[in-house]
UniProtKB/TrEMBL annotation:
Keywords, in A-Z order: RNA-binding, Transcription, Transcription antitermination, Transcription regulation
Family: Belongs to the NusB family.
Protein name as annotated: Transcription antitermination protein NusB
Gene: nusB
Annotated function: Involved in transcription antitermination. Required for transcription of ribosomal RNA (rRNA) genes. Binds specifically to the boxA antiterminator sequence of the ribosomal RNA (rrn) operons.
Length: 150
């Protein structure tokens, strides 16, 4: 498993905790790293995702809610909500990561940690968000900067 996948899984865990824990983000992060020590590379990308998804939670939640017809963000199960938050943050605020990579990683994490329907649900929502923000699905994890339409 790559370091970015590990980071995304840890981001899911932390964002899930933040949904239920009334402590501030710094306390949650400190306690998480204390009980889940990890390398600097994983920790750095995890914190980028968590801090970004948390800081921009309002516009991210509005974008998710506007994409999921007839559902509010609060009605989503907590795992799906956390995955959608960090993946939407990636799509909108981290342009160096190809959208295809973000979506595929989120779907795989949803299949591992969510319900039987989570993978398809996450895929559909993130693809609609990608379309809304006008990003192509081109690129790969080894993207060399040449974007080609598939």
């Amino acid at each position: 498993m790559g370091s970015r996948r590990k980071s995304r899984e840890k981001a899911l865990q932390i964002l899930f905790q933040l949904d239920f824990n009334k402590s501030d983000i710094e306390t949650v992060l400190r306690d998480f790293w204390k009980s889940n020590p990890t390398g600097d590379k994983v920790k750095s990308f995890t914190e980028t995702l968590v801090r970004g998804a948390f800081e921009f939670r309002k516009p991210i939640d509005e974008l998710i809610s506007s994409t999921v017809e007839n559902w509010s963000i609060d009605r989503l199960n907590s795992v799906d909500r956390a995955i959608l938050r960090f993946a939407t943050y990636e799509l909108v605020y981290l342009p160096d990561i190809p959208p295809k990579v973000t979506i595929n990683e989120a779907v795989e994490i949803a299949k591992a940690f969510g319900t039987d329907e989570s993978g398809g649900f996450i895929n559909g929502v993130l693809d609609k968000i990608r379309e809304k923000i006008g990003k192509s699905t081109a690129g790969s994890e080894q993207d060399n900067g040449d974007i080609q339409h598939q």
